[in-house]
Design brief:
By secondary structure, the protein is of the alpha/beta class. It is built from 14 helices and 17 strands. α5 packs parallel to α6. The longest helix has 27 residues.
């Protein structure tokens, strides 16, 4: 059995999604023959309650100078990170000259709010192209991977941080012990580490298996994170559920005893116990639910194609790579995938090699059906696509269940 990356115990593998390409590696036709694949397997550690991948991809293959995701493409995420930043500025920056650090700062979508206020800050972003975009916005950024060694350099140059932030990043980092150690070193005695990631309870409840892909090494619960941070004299002192990314949790971590923990933390741990998030049996049922979701989706796609109806994918997301490859959906079922990101247009989806076309092609010739890969932005998309629905277009969704929506 593989070894748990958090506690060293044995991890029980309960599912393989088969051979999978890099989720964000949208490619040109001449790259098909050299495309990288690995086996996407997932397992559960009963000792520390951490759900995790059991085969990891080298980080340099995931985060690099051609990284395809820019956070600022979504207006909803712009609003979300503005709120996040303003909350931190209002409640956590009491010192005379505060310093804020963000791990995995992407294109500066959150840190620019601190930069605009003249607050000392530093973003750590390993993907060169998005780091460059942040710097062009005036966000102080270093293009590095965050770990204990870099934390030591940052502390020497900037001092300790009032607030360390991360969003949809911690679950990407397999070497979490180095990160937790670095955070403990970099935080002021009364400082905080605030981060948010997709929440395991939402993933299981919604059968959101497309959250499982190469970048997401871990799937967090309050219980599993408490086991990690407790090893570094840190504790979770507050939690705040978030609706973004299909259901996330924002965690506030502080030094043990520095802050009285909110009662919601203990309540959530009890809820996780009641909901089976510490039990292997829950994840065997999760596997069965995933298989049912796959079968139901394929039935709809095959039925509509047999009736000669056009189906177009909506949103060339990382998550779509898991769905397309696990279900075996290729361009015989989907004509193309529509996406607004210019760097993806003209390329092909990882593994299944479905063409990625500009959004204008979707608008100029509406298909009968759009398979909604960007379901976590569903509310924003449904509002935007009222003209499509008014002309009889319908969305096929698969989270939390497979169905056709007007």
């Amino acid at each position: 059995m593989p070894e748990c990356l958090i506690c060293g115990s044995s991890v029980e593998e309960f599912m393989s999604f088969g051979q999978m390409p890099i989720a964000n590696a949208f490619l040109n036709q001449e790259e098909f023959s050299s495309e990288f694949f690995f086996e996407l397997r997932i397992g559960f550690c009963s000792r520390c309650a951490m759900l995790q991948l059991t085969e990891l991809v080298d980080r340099e293959k995931l985060f690099h100078e051609s990284y395809a995701y820019f956070s600022s493409i979504s207006l909803r995420m712009e609003a979300h990170f503005k709120q996040f930043a303003e909350s931190v500025m209002k409640t956590k920056l009491d010192s005379a000259d505060p310093f804020v650090l963000e791990i995995g700062s992407n294109d500066g979508i959150m840190l620019r709010h601190f930069a605009d206020r003249g607050i000392r800050h530093l973003g750590v972003e390993p993907s060169e192209n998005v780091a460059r975009a942040a710097m062009e916005k005036g966000v102080n950024t270093t293009c590095r991977f965050f770990d204990k060694d870099l934390a030591s350099e940052i502390r020497s140059e900037y001092g300790q941080a009032d607030a360390i932030l991360a969003a949809n990043v911690m679950c990407h980092i397999p070497y979490l012990h180095s990160v937790a150690d670095a955070v403990a070193s970099l935080m002021k005695p009364d400082g905080v580490f605030i981060f948010e990631d997709p929440y395991l309870g939402d993933i299981v409840e919604k059968t959101a298996y497309d959250q499982i892909y190469d970048e997401h090494a871990f799937y967090f619960s309050v219980s599993s994170l408490s086991n990690l941070f407790g090893q570094y004299d840190l504790e979770i002192v507050n939690i705040e559920p978030q609706s973004v990314h299909g259901g996330s949790m924002r965690y506030t971590v502080a030094r043990k005893g520095a802050v009285t923990a909110a009662s919601s933390v203990a309540r959530q741990k009890d809820r996780e116990h009641s909901n089976g998030l510490r039990d292997l049996a829950t994840f065997h049922q999760f596997k069965r639910n995933i298989e049912t979701s796959r079968d139901d989706l394929l039935k709809i796609l095959h039925r509509e194609k047999e009736e000669n109806r056009r189906i177009v994918g909506y949103g060339a997301t990382s998550k779509s790579t898991t769905v397309l490859n696990y279900c075996g959906i290729d361009n015989r079922l989907i004509d193309f995938i529509s996406d607004t990101t210019s760097t993806k247009q003209g390329k092909f989806s990882p593994g299944m090699h479905i063409p990625i076309r500009p959004y204008e092609e979707f608008v100029n010739d509406y298909p009968e059906y759009a398979l909604l890969f960007a379901w976590n932005h569903g509310q924003e998309i449904m509002e935007k696509e009222k003209p499509y629905s008014a002309q009889g277009g319908r969305f096929i969704v698969y989270v939390p269940s497979v169905k056709i929506m007007a």
